[in-house]
Amino acid sequence: MAYPYRATYLPVVIAVFEHEAQRIAALKSGWDEVFSQRLDAHLAGLDCRVKSIRFDSEQACTQISNGNWERHLQRKPH
User: Fold this and answer.
1) Do residues 70 and 29 touch, judged by C-beta distance below 8 A?
2) Computed from CA positions of residues 58, 64, 65, 66, in that sequence, does the dihedral angle turn out positive or negative?
3) Averaged over 40-68, what is the pLDDT?
């Protein structure tokens, strides 16, 4: 069954790490590529796509946005 919102609405997936060092290490190791490929494979089975994948951390949200995720996610990603 096709859902009408899919044509105009593509969600953003946010992978959140506890610490910024974990996020940086994951990106340097290529974990983000593996995560993206696996997510795409799973979503293909659901006939779904995402607009983008963002990688962030609790630590960055706390330091930059005082723990306010709504405000933090309005900022441009790292």
Assistant:
1) no
2) positive
3) 93
- Tokens linked to 53: 């994948």
Q: For residue 77, give the 3-state DSSP assignment.
A: coil
Say if strands 52-57 and 12-17 run parallel, antiparallel, or are unpaired.
Answer: parallel
Residue type, 69: W
Which residue's entry shows tokens 């290490």? 25
More confident of the two residues 34 and 45 = 34
CA pair distance 7, 76, nearest whole angstrom: 24
pLDDT digits (tens, 9 = 90+) for 38-52: 999 999 888 888 999
Q: pTM for the whole thing?
A: 0.79
Please classify residue 55 by burial: count the beta carbons closer than 10 Å to its beta carbon, then call 0-12 exposed, 13-18 middle and 19+ buried: buried
Specify the residue for token string 């306010």: 68
Residue 52 backbone phi and psi in degrees, to 5 = -165, 170
